[in-house]
Amino acid sequence: MQLLEAELITLRMPLVSPFATSFGVQNERYPLLVRVRVVHLGQVVTGWGECVALRDPVYSPEYLDSARHVLQHYLLPLVLGAPEPWGPQEVGAILEPIVGHPMAKAALEMALLDAQLRASGNSLAEFLGVTATSVPAGVSVGIQASIPQLLGVVGDYLDQGYVRIKLKIKPGWDYEPVRAVRERFGDIPLQVDANTAYSLADAPTLRRLDEFDLLLIEQPLAEGDLRRHSLLAAQISTPVCLDESITSAASAEDAIALGAAAVINVKPGRVGGYLEARRIHDLALASGVPVWCGGMVETGIGRHANAALAGLPGFTLPGDISASDRFYLTDITEPVVMTGGRIPIWSGPGVCPEPAEAAIAEFTVDSTSLPCG
Ligand code: NPG
Fold this sequence. Notes:
It is a single chain. The protein has 373 residues and is an alpha/beta fold. The protein has 2 domains: 138 residues, Enolase-like, N-terminal domain (Enolase-like, domain 1, 2-Layer Sandwich), CATH 3.30.390.10; 219 residues, Enolase-like C-terminal domain (TIM Barrel), CATH 3.20.20.120. 34% of the residues lie in helices and 22% in strands. The strands form 4 sheets. A 7-stranded parallel sheet has the order 7-8-9-10-11-12-13. A 4-stranded antiparallel sheet has the order 5-4-1-15. Strands 2-3 form a two-stranded antiparallel ribbon. Strand 4 and strand 5 form a beta hairpin. Helix 1 crosses helix 3, helix 2 runs antiparallel to helix 3 and helix 9 packs parallel to helix 10. The site of N-succinyl phenylglycine has 12 residues, from loops.
């Protein structure tokens, strides 16, 4: 593969409603798109990737400007200088000299993989060996202003057909909201996500959630707290799932070995790309650890691609794979639509339907072109 040109496009997209978590309230999303033009199989093709870094470093050390900077000044030059032949499968190794920055690396690998798939006419699902044609749709519910408001929001999502509800929690917004949802909606598949908001000293509070028979509690403690997660797991019966702590297949292997993760949330962006995501899936499957596909409020580019990944057999729990309209009035690809509680897997060439230039132009706030010739 030969890289001819790359463009880094920053969008600003309003959310249909504020999304509140323990790390802050998002009213808009700033997706960073990577568009590449490459020569592959004798054709000039365009590929798209989406970087999931947030505008600010509140969920991960990476953030919008750091991702754009490292892509422009380090990652793209490395790929440009790589001796041919290379393809998307080699990109992980090519980028290895740069420490960290998995979200930026994932976006570049995704764009190159998309280009390869468009040239060969294959879908991401075919590439991954996925035979499923749809996946169950779960939805993530932000922290609400009151319990009646929470019950209204959860009721709406259940009416729309979502098959699993995830509630964001934080100290002071945990036991009561979960109890209210269980009381009102009964035995629905329900899980909670703390986004690192607790410490091990909160084990007695978290143990109170045991009575609700939750599918899992996601990332209760800090990202680096693998050992403490295993200590917490010994004190509560709700299965502990890790998100922020898992940034690679190696960290997934460590978490499983330490008993820190009974379940793993796989987010391709967070772990450096779809290829590393598949490696985590494979090792978790071999270890008997269920995985599910997380979401990062992606546009249709990442949202369609995540649905394909979630079609792999080890993804036995419903993911945060919701329809485009959960977050966006207008998407930049053909929207992801839920029917009967399921999200169809994109079966055309590439990782997603061709993004619409007009929609991208509408939301673009910054764009940098890098001639690579
Ligand atoms: O459905 O795309 C989605 C969002 C699911 O809650 C969700 N994501 O902590 O997992 C999370 C959270 C998140 C969103 C984290 C954006 C970081 C950025």
